[in-house]
Each structure stands twice: as C-alpha cells, then as structure tokens.
Amino acid sequence: MTSKIKVDNIENQCGGAVVTKCGGTTTISGTVVKSNAIQASDGGNLVSQSGTTITLGASGDTINLASGASQTGFGRTGTVDWITTPKTATFTAVSGEGYFCNTSGGAFTVNLPAGVAGAIVSLADYAATWQTNNVTVTPNGTDKIGSFNENAGLNVEGQSVTFVFVDSTQGWINTMDSTSNVRAASPYIAATGGTITESGNCKIHTFTGPGTFTVCTAAVCSANNQVSYMVIAGGGGGVNDVGGAGGAGGFREDKSPVTPYTASPLDGAGDITVTATSFPITVGSGGAATSGSRANQGSTSTFSTISSAGGGGGGTLQSVSGPNRPGGSGGSGGGAGGDNVNGGTIGSSTGNSPPVSPAQGSAGGGSLQGSDGSSNTTGGGGGGGAAGVGAAGAYMCTPNPMGGNGGTATSTQIIGSTVFYAGGGGGGGFPAPASGAGLGGGVVPAPTKGGGGDGGAGNATAGTANTGGGGGGAHGGSGANGGSGIVVIRYKFQ
Fold first, then answer.
1. pLDDT tens, position by position, 419-470
2. Which of 300, 365, 305, 368 is nearest to 331 (CA)?
3. Cα Rg for the chain, rounded, in angstroms?
4. Which residue among 385, 434, 475, 481 is least packed, with the fewest CB closer than 10 Å?
C-alpha cells in the first residue's frame, strides 16, 4: 500500500523554509537537496548522475516534452533519427526523422511538416532509382523551400538531402545534398542497349537494328561475365522468271553455362566474356530481289568478335547469263535459277561462306533438268537454311512442285520462348500442271519456317523481318526481299 504525506511547506529545524508551494509554483530555497538519483514509485530512475553525466529516464523509457512547453539547450545538431523501413508511396514527414525513399515501383511525393524554426527532415534514395522515378517534395501551406512556395524535385540517382526550416523568408533550406555511389560490388552484369526483357534470372537484350550494348558494371563473379548470344545476318533476295530463292542469313549462337535455356543445334560459336565497355551492334538488312540477274546478298550482323554472313541471293534463269545462274554464296547459299536449256543441270551454291565452325548455314538447291532430255524449263532452287540445304528445282512434268523448298530453319529459346530462325526461301516455278512454287523453310508448318519466304507461281513472299529468312523466288511476277537479321544477348542478372 502506498502512503502519501501532503504539506504545503517543509521547514528546517530553525524554522526556515526549505520547500514551499504557492499555487502552481514550487520553490526550493535556503538549502541544498542532494541525491544521485530521483526515482519513480516503481524504482526506475527519473534522473540519475554518474560522474559528470546526467541521464534522464532509463533504458526503454520515452522522454516527452509537455504540450505547450518549450526547451532550450536540447536542440538537434543537424542530425535526424532514420526510419529504416523504406517508404514506397506518398507520405508526410515528421521533423527530426530521416527516410529512405524507394521509387523502384514508381514516383511519389513527400509532404514536409509545418515549418518551425529548427525543424529538420532528411531523404535518401533507397534503390538508386530517383533518376528514373523522381521524388517530389511539397512544402506545407504557405511554407517555402529555398525562398519559393514551390515543390522541389529530387531526380539524381543515389541522392540524399537534408532540409532545415530556418524562417518564413527562406523556409526550408537544403543543408546537405550529396550523391553516394558507394555500393557493394555486384556479382552480376549491369548493362543497357536494345529492347530489354527478362526470363527467369536472366536479362535479354534484343537488337532489331543498329545499336550499342553497354556494360555499365561488370560482374565481380567472373563466370557471370560470360554472356549468351545469337547473331543472325540478313537473308538473301529472290529472283523473278523461274528464279532461285534467297538463302538464310548466317546463324551463330553460343550459350553461356550460367544462362540456362534450350539452345539450337548450332550452339558453340565461341565464348564471349564482356567487360565494362561498349559493344557496337550491327544488324544486317535483307538482300533486295532482282529481275534478270542474281539477287542481292543479305548484309552482315556483328557483336563483339562474332560476325554472321548475309544469305546468298537467288540465281536467275539459265538462258540469261552464265555467271548469274547459280545462287550466291553466303551464310546460307541462294538457290539456282531455273534451266530451260537442254541437257544442263545447275549446281547449288555454297553455304557457310566464309567458313566458320560450327557451320552458320547450308547450301542452296540446284535446278535439275528433266530426265527425258527435253528443253522444258525446271524450277528455281530453294535457298539454304541454318539447319538444312535448299531443295533443287524440278522438271515441270514431274509430280513434285517445280520450285525447290527452302532449307530448314533452326530453333532456340534464347529469348525465353521457342522461336525458329534462318529458314531458306522457296524457289519460283510455273503454275501448271501443278502448283509449282517452293515453300519457304522446307516442308513445315508456317510457324516453323524461320522467316523463309514462299516461292511464287507469280509473286513470291519476302523473308520475315528480324529472322534472317531468305526471300522467295518467282515466275511471272516479282521475286522477294530477304528478311533482316537480329542480335540477341542474354546474361544472368540475379
């Protein structure tokens, strides 16, 4: 049981006042009260002294200043108490606190508290994303930031600031503005360039035109600096007048051990280990179709030390000009033009030119004279594909289509899903007695043609853009252009 003794005055033995109370005022006079500790009823210290150090409260206590009371001599010295749970959305700051602002999920606003002289608020970029997603700082009411009643924008990566309210003239003044790039070394690559997507723990940079792959930070773990890549050149163009088809652009791929996916059978073009530098990317265009001469070769695609050759252009009709009859050589060779001269057979072109290991493509198809030795025209040869040779054009009275089918494409999952690339174009042929056009990419369903354009008993079909597919050959219409190439780079980022 707690007892209380209530008096208005305490006197010493001589009758002098030691403690007196009048209204709300308590006076200690005439003597000295000495103690090393003043304790609450539960025995906890309210005030204690050890040496020259005086402590208010005990561990776990909260020291509050009564409402309406003022203090002197206990002001902050330019520091704040940091709140270690990051802020991710708009909030109102409290004086004396610092906040880590995470804008990786989007920009937001920090509302400053009402300005009182000496009020202090600090903000820091938690995820180094303020450059992309800004923080807006808003003053309270008519308060100012740096003499203007306007919002402030924080847009520097790694920025940290400290605002102190001075007076009504200047309002909040930023007393500290710094940028910190002091971070632990990352075990992963950080890079820019192209269109960036993700698949599992890998980032994928896709280039459908010229660009630059820039490694901003190399991985501290050396194994993670080895990247996977796919480099495909532009496909060759096709030719009209029983023309040969364009060959597929050269296909080269290498799968890094740290970037799991199902690669093509042509995997193994050679390891590339990157450093913190820029790598120019070239994406080859498709070769243009022609009339009366061999079609144009596709253009080269490059990344680092890897170069893929453009697909060879299709050849033209034998009676036109001897050097133009065979398809052109390239990553995959173009198909030969049709033969309307008795007794001749036009051989196929060369694929994998210039030669690399593993091979970047296949030869184009020739044009086969009829077994009866007649001078009837045969169809144009199919262009070579990454995974197979182009089929030969056949004599018009055979039961088979006259134009040769394009060489088979190859598939890879480097972009995160299965896609077929680098199919050869189909050769051109007559419309009778059967549909004489060759099929792009071999005798396969459309999704697996790898961009190879169909031949035409009339106009042909172009190679699909960014697949390296060869353009189709035609008869009586127009040959078609080859498809443009593509460059893909894949690496582990987490």
1. 999 999 999 887 654 456 678 887 777 778 999 999 888 899 999 999 999 9
2. 300
3. 40
4. 434
